[in-house]
Amino acid sequence: MFVKKLVEIAAKKPGGSSLEGLRANDVEPRVVLHYGVPSGSHLFAYDPFHKILAVSTKDGRIKLFGKDQTQCLLVSVEASTSKFLEFVQNQGLLLNVNTKNQIEVWDLEKKCLSHVHVFNGEITSFRVMQHTPYFYVGDSSGNVSVLKIEHDSNHVIQMDYTIPYLASNGSPVESSDDTSVVSILPQPTAESKRILLVFSSGFITLWDIKESKPVLKTGGYGMVRQDAKKATCACWVCPSGSRVSVGYSNGDILIWSIPSKGESSTESSAMVCKLNLGYKSEKTPITSLKWVYAEGKASRVYVIGSSSNLLQVVLLNEQTETRMVKLGLHVSEPCADMELIIADGNEQSKHKMDYLFVLGKSGRVYAYDDYMIEKYLIQSQSKSPPSLPKETVVKLPFSDSSSITVGKFLTNPSHLLNLSDEDYAQLAKDSAPFLPSQTVSKEGSRSSSSAHFPGFTKVKNVYITGHSDGTIGVWDMTCPFPIPVLSLKEQTDLDTSSRGSAALTALHYDSNTRLLVSGDQNGMVRLYRFKPEPYLTENSFIPFQGSSKKGNNHIVQSVKYIKLTGSITCIQKSQNSKHLAIGSDQGHVSLVDIEEATVLYTKHIASDICAGIISLQFESCSVQGFEKNVLVVAMRDSSVFALDSDTGNMIGTNMIKPKKPFKALFMQILDGTQDSSGNGIDVSRESIVEDISIRQPSVLICSEKAIYIYSLVHVVQGVKKILHKKKFSSSPICSASIFYGTSGVGLTLVFSDGTVEIRSLPELSLLKQTSIRGFTYTSPKPNSLPDITISASWDGDLVMVNGDDELIVSSVLPQKDIFRLTDSLSRVYKKDNAVCHEGIITSGVASSPKEKKGMFGSVFKTKSKQRTIDTETESTKETVEELSKIFSTANFPWNNNVESSRESNAVIRVDNEEEMDIDDIDIDDDDHQHQQQQEQPKEQGLLSGLSKQKLANTFSTFKGKLKQMKAKNEKSIVTNEEKHEEKNGTTVDQIKKKYGFASSDDMGAAKMAQAKLQDNQKKLQGISLKTTEMEDTAKSFSSTAKELLSAVEFNRQSSKS
Predict the structure, then answer these.
(1) Quick check: is 705 in a domain?
(2) Which of 755, 772, 789 is the endpoint of a domain?
(3) In whole angstroms, what is the distance from residue 144 CA to residue 831 CA?
(4) If pLDDT is split at 50, 70 and 90, which confidence band does 865 have?
(5) Mean pLDDT calculated for residue range 313-327
(6) Does the pLDDT value for residue 882 go beyond 60?
(7) How much is the pTM?
(8) Domain edge (last residue) among 741, 772, 803
(9) Upstream peptide bond of 482 is cis (omega within 30 degrees of 0)
């Protein structure tokens, strides 16, 4: 019975077998373009050599912004939040650390992920040693590891060189949860020789890389214990590396003196300055510090507090002690990160643009002119202080003051090449840059232009946008960035109301009649008639010139207005007549004469649930033997019915609706005779439809949770007969559209969680499924417009605009090139333009050859003996070779053993046990052990005693493993005897053993095994004695250390009192 039912269902499919329609191989859903700032952005990085700004997100995406309109999106396999992001400058590499402590190496030239290194530990700080293949990783245990990027493979390997917490801090008694490394700063002018480590406890260590020992220890508990606070961030505030600014969790910002290159001091340096910026009064943790060195008195520090809208900039000069000059920038939302883009000093002043970029908690990017910030700080105390720097929101170029509320994407594969690739490449350079810090050539302009626009059917891709202020924008999207070509905004007496301009809610374009129709929230309908194409008769290329004088008169022929009731929701033109069908959110259906701009009739359709009209489709249908023009209407409550298009009367007796209605989104007549796509460019589409229109016309309606396909004849008659249906229990559908391929018609569904499904029609079988990373749709509130608009073309391209921040374009058909210049405009890094350093390693902040006299004045006091900064450059090759020798040597072997055993604990523990041989243990060889200890590097301070304690723990672990091996050895002897019996049961010795007599070989083997076991037991006893002795020594040492610390604390308190 079940098989018979399946056969009936298979034979029931109308229009032949599904093999005639789309197949899985015919579709390939994918994202082909991302333009703008991705949602969920929260971290910046900048490469000053190639002028590349990177923005990472919370879902594993990284967006790159380069010069000349170049943009590129990198998508990681792991959808994890980025913790650290840093360029390997001038090497075409970007390192990203996510919350899973994975270090990703991105190849910018190939735009791919080269390697993922899994770090064993919680990464709390990260720093690249620029111009070398090495970088530092600090973890929550206070240890710093050195890792290297292999030149050819870009793989990450961990070096033997480490900086253990006990070696850098040297205070094991005070160890607590505050041991994590919060900042690693290579010292300016000595990047390859010294690094500054800042711990969460507030402890600061200046570490000598070659000597493998601390040069300075300061900022510990004894110096900052008066307040319960933790260090959170740090940055250098001096080009010589003699001053460092540290931010704390209680809002403090302290500046410490550090011995610069050539100085050696293990004494604790004093705090030299405290910046009172108001964060401490509110206990706002400092999350980010940036410093910019400038000539004269303009050096300054930028400060961001956690969950604070206030970003403060402070001048650091000789007047800081007596009069602190600061500027508070009130950002529109709490700040997450900031990045300074400072132009190269060699650039011409005309094109030099310095900018401060601020990343808000929402992921939006704000920009400030840094030159105006510097000017304000310097002149703020003058008689005529300058105005405050203005905030600029980095957003899509579609509109300066309004957002997109509705869109229409038109594709024309048979377009004529009006402009060459060279012309579009020049347009990219002349167009307004996405980031305000990017320069534009003199010919460039921010004004929109229609000078190069030949017409809607003469351009490969046209994007029409309707905005919240009633403006219509037309954009040439032949290339992967929007080029403005037309802006329509008319103000008439009918269009003006007490509420001002209304947002556009519906658009329709018909290429055959060159008609563009728009409808807004107030019921105003505008009909724009364009002149015949092409608009430019002269074969000229004038990028962005002359449009202001010419206006739109050479394109727009006439404009007409019609006022209707309610907010316009859908517009459809009849191909057989000069009529428009217009629906509203209040259930009104109006038929309009296009030439006369008059309303022929208006019908109101009542509904108990929701009266809004979502779609109108003209169609010819046979009713009772007569051919009749009908208007199929779909409502928001998923009801479908048909009207007589001539009179507006309902033909059938009932509306067709599901038992459980959901909010309807889309309606389409399949295999009909009229063009109901609404995309206008239908020449190619009609030829495809002729090949596949062999089925009976049907009506598809899609809601948030279900899809139904009805017979058109039954819909007209008012009879409910479902041909196909599909229900969904996952996240709701937010967009549905059909597309036409060479082998059939398909359905594209976009769900609110970013899932995209491609289904065949009319069977609704699933062909392909994918997901758009970072896409999340939220249903708009009542009487409001959605933040995300989705437009579909007839051949399956989707354009998704998320507010003013990002534009995403996806495609369905394989081997379809949507845009021109895709490769060149996504190449943010060009290896040919790599900067030659001439073998120099210098710091980005050490831009001045000499430290200015009185730099930081009396506040940052220096020694009486004046000293110039040693800026002798180092040969890159020689430095890398020297570092290779240093980092390839285990400077603390005891720490490397512990770390390696911890990293390989789950992987090679069994192998180690199998390879371990008790015969290799020699307990009494004290001279050999003494010789090995002499070969190891000397440990500083308390390390020699502490290593014994760690060694004792290691011996205890080793002792347990030896006991397991003893049991293994006994078991193996028995097992070998059993195997020997099976193989040689016929021998004389085995016969003797069978009858209870022992053979000579067995007696010898047993004696040897017994002697072996006795020897092993002696060794284990010796190890136990050694372990007990070392444990007692470690306990005694720990007790002595505690007593010594208590004595020091008591003496310190006594001296204070």
Answers:
(1) yes
(2) 772
(3) 32
(4) very low
(5) 77
(6) yes
(7) 0.78
(8) 772
(9) no
Q: Cβ distance 315 to 300 under 8 Å?
A: yes
With respect to residue 746, please indicate whether it lies within any of the assigned structural domains. yes
Our CA angle for 940, 943, 945, nearest 5°, is 130
Q: Is residue 95 part of a domain?
A: yes
Number of domains the chain is built from: 2
DSSP 318: T
- At 109-143, the pLDDT tens digits run 999 999 999 999 999 999 999 999 999 999 999 99
Range of the domain at 53: 42-163
Is 131 inside a domain boundary? yes
Residue 570 above 60 pLDDT? yes
| Three-class DSSP category at 475 | strand
Residue 222 one-letter amino acid? G
Element holding 394 (H helix, E strand):
strand 392-394
Q: Which helix (H) or strand (E) holds 1023?
A: helix 1000-1056
Which one, of 114, 845, 67, lies nearest residue 429 by Cα?
Answer: 67
Q: What is the CATH number of the domain that holds 78?
A: 2.130.10.10
Rg of the chain in Å (alpha carbons) = 38
For residue 393, the Cα-to-chain-centroid distance in whole angstroms is: 19
Quick: pLDDT tens for 13-49.
333 334 467 899 999 999 999 999 999 999 999 999 9
Q: How far apart are CA 640 and CA 207, in angstroms?
A: 76
Exposed/middle/buried for residue 832 (C-beta within 10 Å: 0-12, 13-18, 19+):
exposed
Question: Which pLDDT belongs to residue 540?
Answer: 33
Q: Supply the DSSP string of 480-512, one letter for each residue.
A: SS-EEEEEE----TTT--TT-SPPEEEEEEETT
Residue 1040 confidence (pLDDT): 61
Selected residue with higher pLDDT from 548 and 597: 597
Report the CATH number at residue 740: 2.40.128.630
For residue 265, what pLDDT is reported?
Answer: 59
Q: Which residue carries 């650039």 as its tokens?
A: 347
Strand segments (E) across 452-587: 461-467, 472-476, 483-488, 504-510, 515-520, 524-530, 556-563, 568-573, 579-584
